[in-house]
Amino acid sequence: xxxxxxxxxxxxxxxxxxxxxxxxxxxxxxxxxxxxxxxxxxxxxxxxxxxxxxxxxxxxxxxxxxxxxxxxxxxxxxxxxxxxxxxxxxxxxxxxxxxxxxxxxxxxxxxxxxxxxxxxxxxxxxxxxxxxxxxxxxxxxxxxxxxxxxxxxxxxxxxxxxxxxxxxxxxxxxxxxxxxxxxxxxxxxxxxxxxxxxxxxxxxxxxxxxxxxxxxxxxxxxxxxxxxxxxxxxxxxxxxxxxxxxxxxxxxxxxxxxxxxxxxxxxxxxxxxxxxxxxxxxxxxxxxxxxxxxxxxxxxxxxxxxxxxxxxxxxxxxxxxxxxxxxxxxxxxxxxxxxxxxxxxxxxxxxxxxxxxxxxxxxxxxxxxxxxxxxxxxxxxxxxxxxxxxxxxxxxxxxxxxxxxxxxxxxxxxxxxxxxxxxxxxxxxxxxxxxxxxxxxxxxxxxxxxxxxxxxxxxxxxxxxxxxxxxxxxxxxxxxxxxxxxxxxxxxxxxxxxxxxxxxxxxxxxxxxxxxxxxxxxxxxxxxxxxxxxxxxxxxxxxxxxxxxxxxxxxxxxxxxxxxxxxxxxxxxxxxxxxxxxxxxxxxxxxxxxxxxxxxxxxxxxxxxxxxxxxxxxxxxxxxxxxxxxxxxxxxxxxxxxxxxxxxxxxxxxxxxxxxxxxxxxxxxxxxxxxxxxxxxxxxxxxxxxxxxxxxxxxxxxxxxxxxxxxxxxxxxxxxxxxxxxxxxxxxxxxxxxxxxxxxxxxxxxxxxxxxxxxxxxxxxxxxxxxxxxxxxxxxxxxxxxxxxxxxxxxxxxxxxxxxxxxxxxxxxxxxxxxxxxxxxxxxx
Length: 829
What we know:
Mean pLDDT: 79
Strand content: 15-25%
Structural class: alpha+beta
Largest sheet: 6 strands, mixed
Radius of gyration: 47 Å
Strand order of the largest sheet: 14-15-16-12-17-18
Distance between the termini: 98 Å
Number of helices: 22
Number of strands: 27
């Protein structure tokens, strides 16, 4: 990319803010050296890295930790140098950070493939971290255990030091010498222990003078009696220093063996931290990933002919048959260097088959900011940065971005503003081709308006003939007319609020702008007589054109407001429709529930009536009475049974085909049988029916009678053993119905849970429950008493054995609770 363009568009300032997000110097170098790419594959890979990093930082605490740029230190070790312990500790912390990050990314390689691919280069040198840990402490000190000799030397140093201190302590505590001392303390001079002796007692203690105070009142002496001890202690210190250096040299040789992998690892770590920095910067500026698309390929036709060659007097047949048009679609784009609280977002969408946009409007209206925003965002996007624009913004890739923005006058080079612009434009025309984006601010300004307009039009026509994408700002009305008539060029304008005399910074594509000079002067209070003269000097056609532009803008703003109202009304209608659908669904669920309850009641009443009818037939046979009269009742009963057995179907209104969010019933799924209010497991499935196992009982039921459990229970199957053997809560409310006949009592539920109750209370509750079960005509019941000590179980079974409404009873199956459950079969009429 052109360095001057990067500077003009303030790209380096973006890199400085990006570098501030980096964790260590290696990644900061990458940030400051980042350049826009011209490879579409590389751009998409960079964008993917940022997207993955943003997701990773949100979903985890990924970080490079305490990593450092250890490359200079590793290079020194490779050259045979000996590193300081603190430098070796930096290598250790970097290796640990790399190891943890690599482990984290390897686990989530499917979610973050690009980052995981980079992490494969992170170093994992076996044994190096342990070797450093055995040698250097976390504070950067060489440990005693770094070598046996070092441990021995440090032991000797402690002994020598204690002896030295003990001998010197006698001098500062002996009454015969303490009076000669300035202070009763032991200090050091030039690495040797001394005592402070008053000057007037010099020579009273045989010693070596090492120093004296600034006043001369105190001299620091080393008694001759401790010279040998001081020497011994110092010799051991020097031996310790040499051993430490030998240990560190050996460790540095080990580091040098892994130098290549360590250097590669730092570079990989820098790439990962650079991705994290780009992600953090994207979050800071509320950016989104841009979509890169290929340029639009259009075949030439009569409506889109080849450029006319003025030298040959005919179309240029050397031009290719196809033309390529770029895509620049930035939605709610914001300049990244402006205050996000005050910056005004703008939309910049290059229309179909357009190669140039000419932006007009008043000064300070935001034309230059619009150009800079588009140019800078394209540079950022091609650098692999997310851009401050709405998600869905799309761009084409440009191999070069060339801009001429700002005042280029130079006193040293004797260049005026106009000369500076022309010099830049010449350079740009030489470098640009059909894969370039050219940005020209105030084209044709700084000279005679008529000549400037002619030159600007000629430059723009030249760029269009070469198929170069161009963005231009200007004040020349001739360029507005040119854009209106020339193919591939479109007008645009920045809006200005005449009531507040402030720009709105909103860009409108398709409508040229106006300077509003007379209107602004009128608002500011310029005398009307002067304004009238000014209006008379303006071409009437230009005034009519301005009035037409005002009308177009008003109509456009009106249609925009109406469209917003329509969008809002449509959103509200959609919301109301969704609420209505949810309400209808709820009503339908209530309807089916009511019908299911009613059908359950009907089934139970039919069953009881059948039993009563059978009982009546047996009684009539006993007394030898004809039973033909009961045949009519049996037929009516069969008809009623058929009606009741019909499933309750859900009434649904026809909808557009949408993805099915419900799952079909599966074998082994836990369900609730609506008619009994009990839970069971599906053992057999057909098109309209299912067989449900409830305890030891298997019941065939219509699919409409089956209610599935929550989605969390869909995965439970019969072969999951322990899950189906858990204790079950009492379903005392299940299968209860309201009877219309006085001879039928409501069901007390299929199970009775007596666990935790006293024996007397349990037996009383059991007898009451059995009476209700018998009156409800239930075929069997389950009594849950638990295992425990067996006393409650014994009393329950004794009560069942003597109860007149219990025919037989048996131990529950293993899936029902085994010996902790008793199943009792009720007496039939």
